[in-house]
Amino acid sequence: MANKELLTSTLKKYFGFDTFKGNQEAIMENLLDGNDTFVLMPTGGGKSLCYQLPSLIMEGTAIVISPLIALMKNQVDAMRNYSEEDGVAHFLNSSLNKQAIDQVKEDVISGKTRLLYVAPESLTKEENIEFLKTVKISFYAVDEAHCISEWGHDFRPEYRRIRPIINEIGKRPVIALTATATPKVQHDIQKNLGMTDARVFKSSFNRPNLYYEVRSKTSNIDKDIIKFIKDRPGKSGIIYCLSRKKVEELAQILQVNDIRALPYHAGMDSATRTANQDAFLQEDVDVIVATIAFGMGIDKPDVRFVIHYDIPKSLEGYYQETGRAGRDGGEGLCITFYTNKDLQKLEKFMQGKPVAEQEIGKQLLLETAAYAESSVCRRKTLLHYFGEEYAETNCGNCDNCLNPKKRVEAKDELCAVIEAVIALKEKFKADYITNVLLGKETNEIKSYGHESEEVFGSLQSSDSKFVGAVIRQAIISGYLDRDIENYGLLKVTNAGRAFLKKPTSFKIVEDNDFSDSDEEVVAKGGVSCAIDPELTAILKDLRKKIAKQHNLPPYVIFQDQSIDAMATTYPISIEELEKVPGVGPGKAKRYGDEFIKVIKRYVEENDIERPEDLMIRGLPKKADLKQPIINGIDRRIPLDELAESNGLEFNELLDVIEAMVHAGMKINIDYFISEIMDEDSENEIFEYFKESESGDVDTAVEELGNDFTEDEIRLVRIKFLSELGN
């Protein structure tokens, strides 16, 4: 009882609150009683208070092991605001000079400091271990404890050394805290910290105020993001990118489009990084573009949106990063852009790592892909991943629930899946089971002799996407289980065996389609609108008519991407038409009048309200490339030398030249083509494009690739488009 009263009075005195949230009070009582404590609490649930407040009550200094300098600074500043004494909280890390370190140690020894934040790397230094042996320690807090586990989204090997060092410094109660841990990660944390007897406090992972949406990642992604932000003036947001280069580039694009944005990543010097973080916290800027290094423990309650430019490496990472939105219980929009190509890139990054680490990484990526592609309630999928069941059928606050797909019966398919898992002795993963059911004679299946199994090919009339959806939704429904310890092998649960004996209705929703089709590439257009199918058909007919008049394939007039963009933004003047991707002044002048007339008439007849123009300004560097490239071609500089002198890969140079030609510019690269290939080869490729319906490079490579390289095909295609189309 004394502890209860002391906690309440301290809460009011230092933090100004009258009551605790959720499990906070019980967690602190357990710690004050000298017990090890494990806290699973979502971002915004008030984890930090669980060790900050007890540190002010207990005798001695609490050691908080925390992975990020930014997080430490933020929390130390916050603690100093709650107290009249600046020395109440300090951090000890590589950013401090000797004088500052001496001041920290002096305050700790004098008893002023109740909270000492230490980076795990600093904790392992011999001089710090020796110093901490002389300090009266109240307890140890391990923040962001998921960093201990290889299965967590931010594994740090130095976290594995925490327990031996605690034993060396001196045993005291340990409180481990994380905002994201699957049952597997939770077990790893407790085992590695030697606290398997700890009392576990687990709060619900459900954040009802967060809206989850996955969008197809298209070539218009920058426009989509700029439009999204400009529709929410003054609102705070974070955009996460996987690479530092993309962070810098996107921050610049936002800035030139009059959005107050700054970059943040580990490659920047610490002074700039800190200044950018502070500018965001103090609302001098609205948007931070960052790698995942940003935001751990950042206490900004009114972040209104979190955008993932790239799909995260794991659902833990995704959950924690989206959790930075709406911490005050207000609006929190979580938008993720997804394409399967990003997953392939992430898999490539893993090559060269130890095999076990690669396997874990692949499993985590598969979970992320499943989440993105699934049409099931996003909330239900996320909570299931963290070992929590969500009973509602419709959460009413995610894209899948607000636009529900029709459910289809999959009872027979589920029976086939369960039979296959049992027949293969529960020793294989979902993709292998899928291939067996579809009857694919892969080398792996042949090596096991599974093509002779009765279940082989039993779902050959289905496709892999549908079978994948059946397996995923069977796991959520409890008929199957994934053995995480063994890299995701599928197991049949008791409920699954009962279902096989007495099947009942099993309705599923089919997965979303994120394939890279032409229509999807501009599905949201430059202004987040749908393509007008009727106008598309009219414009394609007009393109065909003009192409016949000029005896050209239709794609030479305007590419499909340009037609789709016209049927999205409805340009009704030559100036507006020039802004359409792949048009430019040359083509607009040559072919534009007829297209403008048709679009104008269509808009008037159908009383269409045109979307407000969104002119996105690009970065000067890209625009500057055109002139030096044109000058170089005029001077007949070999293209490989021209690429190198402009800091480009050869294929990047071809991208720039193609864009100029598509926009209607006439470019003569005969001098280079004649150097690298003979006339017959050039004529063969040229004639191919005359007959080609789409003019697509990938198709051309497929059909001509045995005789010519992709670069040769692209070079002749540039000549063809320039001579006949411009």
Quick one: how many beta strands? 17
- Major beta sheet, strand line-up: 3-4-2-5-6-1-7
Q: How helix-rich are the residues, as a percent range? A: 40-55%
Rounded to an integer, what's the Rg over CA atoms?
Answer: 30 Å
- What's the architecture of the largest domain in CATH terms? 3-Layer(aba) Sandwich
**What is the average per-residue confidence, as pLDDT, rounded to a whole number?**
84
Low-confidence stretches: 516-529
Strand content: 5-15%
Number of self-contained structural domains? 5
Oligomer: single chain
Biggest sheet statistics = 7 strands, parallel
General form: globular
Structural class: alpha/beta
Q: In the CATH hierarchy, what is the class of the largest domain?
A: Alpha Beta
Question: Treating each run of at least 4 consecutive H or I residues as one helix, how many helices?
Answer: 35
Question: What does this protein structure show overall?
Answer:
The protein is α/β, with parallel strands linked by helices. Helix content is 50%, strand content 11%. The chain has 35 helices and 17 strands. It has a 7-stranded parallel β-sheet with strand order 3-4-2-5-6-1-7, with helices on both faces. The chain has a 6-stranded parallel β-sheet with strand order 8-13-12-9-11-10, sandwiched between helices. Strands 14-17 form a two-stranded antiparallel sheet.
Describe the structure using short key phrases.
726 residues; alpha/beta; Rossmann fold; Arc Repressor Mutant, subunit A; six-stranded parallel beta sheet; 17 strands; 50% helix; globular
